Every structure is written in structure tokens, then in C-alpha cells.
Amino acid sequence: MHPNPAFRNDDRALHEALVEEIGFGMIFAATPDGPRVAHTPLLSTGDGAVQFHLARGNALTRAIESATALIVVNGPDGYVSPRWYADPAQVPTWNYVALELEGRVRRMEREGLRALLEALSARHEARLTDGAPWTMDKMPEAALSQMMDAIVGFEMEVLAWRPTFKLSQNKAPEERERVAAGLEAEGSPAIAQLMRRLVP
Questions:
Q1: Are the C-beta atoms of 131 and 74 separated by less than 8 Å?
Q2: Confidence tier at 3 by pLDDT (50, 70, 90)
Q3: Which parts of 48-172 fold into alpha helices (H)?
Q4: Residue 127 CA to its chain's centroid (Å)
Q5: Fewer CB atoms < 10 Å away: N or C end of the chain?
Q6: C-alpha to C-alpha distance for 54 and 185, rounded to whole angstroms
Q7: What is the total count of domains within the chain?
Q8: What is the pLDDT of residues 105-119, one digit of tens each?
Q9: Other CB atoms within 10 Å distance of the CB of residue 16
Q10: Which Gene3D superfamilies does this entry report, sorted A to Z (predicted)?
């Protein structure tokens, strides 16, 4: 989390929406062999927990159960050039959105893992527009069972939400608009849109 309090955001609904919209993150935890990270789809339960799954052979899978872990979700980001400011006393920086979630992890039962996989595929299939959505019942049960044997489902009870919404809040409105326009022109429209929507 960025140390400048101007870049913090206490809107829990927005944090949940970020997890929902991005749908992917990194899980960090300590293992007997040192710190490890895994990349995985995420599902917010809407009541303060986040679910995910890892390959059974992943080093984190053996160490994470009942441990405290950290999930990081990265939102839009973009390089900010000093050329976009009227004030010449500026340096390059980066605007970005990131959310850190810290909490205790528990292993899910097989039924919970299946429900997680069904929810994840339904959510992401719904975003596609080219035909009928894929559903798990289209897969032979034996093949699905074999694939499920290769992964483990987990749920984190989130005890700390640490967001950073670095959107040039420390700049004057006219400077922010120049930065947003620069980001948009250089191919980072998502971070520009958040700057305009979330900063008064």
C-alpha cells in the first residue's frame, strides 16, 4: 500500500467490485523453502472472503492451509510523463490501482471446489458474446473428476483490506485532467477513466 494517505480508499464496495472485475490475482505466503507466489483466478464471496484454487503440485498448496497469506489484485495502471504538467518541477511517476488482502486461509471441501469452478466459469463465460456459454456439465464426469483431483480449492477470510488508488489526487484538478488526457492518448484509457470518475 502506498504510504501517502491521499491514495487510500475506504469504499469496501469498490474493493469488492475490483476483485470481481479483475478476477485474477497473486497469492503470497511463506513456505519452508522461502516466500512463494502463485497466480490464480479469484472469486469474492461478497461477505469478506475470497476463494481461489491452486495446482496440487504448487509449493504454496502444501504450506498455505491455515496460514496467513496475502492476495494482490492489480487494476489499471499507466506511466505519467512530466511533459503533461504545466508545472515544470515534476518527475515521472506511475498511476495505478492495487488492492492487498491479508487473511487466514482454509482448504475447501471438494463440493466447495466444484461450486467455485462453476461460479468462475459462469462469470467469465457470461462476458463472451460468441455463442452459448460453456458449462461444466458439457465435460465428461470422469475427465472433470480427474482434473479436479489436480487442484485444491481455498478460501481466505480477509482480515485486512489495503487499497492503493494512485490517481493524481495530490495534483490540482487541471493538472489531473492533463494527466488523464495524456494517459488516454497513450493507450491507458482505463486508468484515465478512473481518475475522472473517482477523484472529485
A1: no
A2: confident
A3: 59-63, 110-125, 141-149
A4: 17
A5: C
A6: 38
A7: 1
A8: 999 999 999 999 999
A9: 19
A10: Electron Transport, Fmn-binding Protein, Chain A
Using CA atoms, how far apart are residues 12 and 87, in angstroms rounded to an integer?
35
pLDDT digits (tens, 9 = 90+) for 156-166: 999 999 999 99
Asked if 116 contacts 108 with a C-beta cutoff of 8 angstroms, the reply is yes
Q: Is the dihedral of CA 14, 27, 96, 165 positive or negative?
A: positive
Which residue carries 496475502 as its cell? 70
Residue with cell 471438494: 110
Q: CA-to-CA distance for 194 and 60, rounded, in angstroms?
A: 34
157-194 residue pLDDT tens: 999 999 999 999 999 999 999 999 999 999 999 999 99
Contact 125, 44 (CB under 8 A): no
Tell me how many degrees the CA angle 131-133-136 measures, rounded to the nearest 5.
145
Find the CATH number of the domain harbouring 48: 2.30.110.10
**Domain interval for residue 162:** 5-198
Please say whether the beta carbons of 168 and 198 come within 8 A: no
Q: Which residues 6+ apart lie within 8 Å of 10 measured at CB?
A: none
